[in-house]
Amino acid sequence: MPVNESITSSGPTTLVHAMQILQVTARGGHRGASVDDYLNELSFSRPTLYRLLKGLKQQGFLRSSPIRGRYLLGYELLVLGAQAGNGAGLRDLARPRLLTLAQRWGDSFYLFARDGVNAVCLEVQNGAYPVGSFVRATGGRLPLGVGQASIALLAYLGADERSEILNHNAEQLMDEYAIAIDGIEAEIAHQLKHGYARGVEGSLLPEYSGLAIPILDHSGHPLGAMSCSMLKSRMTKSHKLEVLQGMQEEVAAMVNQAHGLLYLD
Amino acid sequence: MPVNESITSSGPTTLVHAMQILQVTARGGHRGASVDDYLNELSFSRPTLYRLLKGLKQQGFLRSSPIRGRYLLGYELLVLGAQAGNGAGLRDLARPRLLTLAQRWGDSFYLFARDGVNAVCLEVQNGAYPVGSFVRATGGRLPLGVGQASIALLAYLGADERSEILNHNAEQLMDEYAIAIDGIEAEIAHQLKHGYARGVEGSLLPEYSGLAIPILDHSGHPLGAMSCSMLKSRMTKSHKLEVLQGMQEEVAAMVNQAHGLLYLD
DNA sequence: TGGCTTTGTCTCATTTAGTGAGATGAACTC
DNA sequence: GAGTTCATCTCACTAAATGAGACAAAGCCA
After folding, report:
1. Which residues 44-63 of B are in CB contact (within 8 Å) with A?
2. Per the structure, how many domains does chain A have?
3. How many other CB atoms sit within 10 Å of the CB of residue B218?
4. Is A112 found in the same domain as A51?
5. Are A140 and A257 contained in the same domain?
6. What global pTM score does this model have?
7. Which of B9, B30, B51 sits opposite A88 (nearest CB)?
8. B257: nearest Cα among B223, B213, B211
9. Model pLDDT for residues B101-130, shown as the tens digit of each residue
10. Which domain range does residue A47 map to?
11. A59 and A91: one domain?
């Protein structure tokens, strides 16, 4: 089965091929990918494959597995990935704060940013209590509309942009998450009125609940969102208010710090 | 000033150029890089630059900054980076354990793996106490020889491989860290005798101290190392023993889990 | 509003530089 | 030591990336 070509479509073919190699490797998880995996899934010759593998290895984007003939993602990606997740320096600022929150309340806290029509998870900090979430780890992506953080992000985009995104995601939201646009718009209204988001109930993860608040820059555009997730049974009125206040305090402090940092060019 | 060409030397030039673009972008931190940055630091024409930028953007490896004409690392790198750091599935296993340790003892705990002649930090979990460390975050790299985790990793490599690495790093270790090979070998001996590493005293970070233990696979090869760092004043004999035991328990549990996971093909 | 700067795109000729086929060498397995 | 798979090499070929410079578009500042 050839790799999905709709995503990795245009551009210099060498580049596309290289990225396809990385994708195939990533799909292999911690076992990586074998020469055959590449040859089966991709559509270029073996010498070319080896040339690219060699190049990617030299750049640190791949490394060879202890198992001969298998390849793993290289640590250079780790460095770049850590950088990539630090958009606006947000991640560094958020990390210790998420930890504080998780330790204090025992729930799990997240930092999200917008990535096109998706929300991408920049950082997770799990607490002591068990938790179910759509994202498993840093780097996880969700279509905007799923989860409370999505709502917090969507609410502060322009109306046109928002409807464009929702329109784009509508089918997927309904099919995969059983979430209707109406529900999302209702929650956006709730976010705008009360300053926090709760997420739309879908068919998945019915026993979990969460909260999210946006992280806005000085002009009101969303830089990201902080969210938390917990068992519904833990979401008592008082706990909700406590956690919400905790999150708001941390985000306010973050934004202050950010302003100190962002504007010294 | 052109980008360091010794690292990014050979391979298909398109690939090299693309990676150079990513490196330049990464160097810009959360401010990314501008068209001029690329044109100054790299040696290809503007149309080519734009073609590559476009390609990289389509692949999700770059995104354009809110500031026009600047580019940031894309979130695809985040996904790949998260994967890359999960060598042997170790990171997923270690993450909650590092958190437990950090919460329990208040010190900072790390997961390291070997990356050629370097040690790369796969995960950090800071505790409540302030801490100084050579690595600031996930993705940080140190020449093998620096820090306690390095010792733990080096100790379980073959003698020939070890001396090759030390030979390679010797100059840098002395110049940048004021660490002598003799000292490293002494600490390796200590690791092998007592099962844990303490790190070699260099001129940097004199007020901090640490411990590390290796994470070995079934055949005794090092998969990684777990380490901790703390103010010297906190390193009492009893605290040291407690932390060490805590780390050993967590690593033992990890290795058990790993064996359960790694061998079901 | 209008001129100015910088970003981004286009065209086209040039030729580099990546490509495929198949053979060969190296490493590990049984 | 035979067999298998991984990795490299050579060489001719031409597809495909490149550079120069012109052109279009988008902010910016007065």
Report:
1. 51-52, 54-56, 58-59, 61, 63
2. 2
3. 10
4. no
5. yes
6. 0.87
7. B30
8. B223
9. 998 999 999 999 999 899 999 999 888 887
10. 13-80
11. no
Alpha carbons B13 and A15: distance in angstroms, whole number: 10
Helix axes A46-58, A13-27, angle to 10 degrees: 80
| Separation between Cα atoms, residue A192 and residue A197, nearest integer Å | 8
* Same domain? A142 vs A237: yes
Nearest to A216 by CA among A173, A170, A132, A155: A155
Strands (E), B2-41: 33-34
**Within a 10 A sphere around the Cβ of B40, how many other Cβ atoms?**
14
Considering the domain architecture, whether residues B71 and B177 belong to the same structural domain is answered as no
Using a CB–CB cutoff of 8 Å, tell me whether B120 touches chain A: yes
Task: Considering any atom of strand D, list protein residues whose CB lies within 7 Å.
Answer: A 12-14, 34-36, 46-47, 50, 53-54, 64, 68-69; B 13-14, 17, 43-48, 51-52, 68
Contact between B156 and B216 under an 8 Å Cβ cutoff? The reply is: yes
| Residue in A113, A141, A124 with CA at minimum distance from that of residue A221 | A113
Residues sharing a CB contact under 8 Å with residue A136, sequence separation 6 or more, in sequence order: none
How confident is the prediction along chain A (265 residues), in pLDDT tens digits per residue?
A: 333 333 334 568 888 888 889 999 998 888 889 888 888 888 888 888 888 998 898 888 999 888 888 999 999 999 999 889 887 788 888 988 998 899 899 999 999 999 989 999 999 988 888 777 778 788 889 999 999 999 999 999 988 889 989 999 999 999 999 999 999 999 999 999 999 999 888 777 788 889 999 999 877 889 899 999 998 889 999 999 999 999 999 999 998 887 665 443 3
Whole-angstrom distance, CA of residue A235 vs CA of residue B96: 23
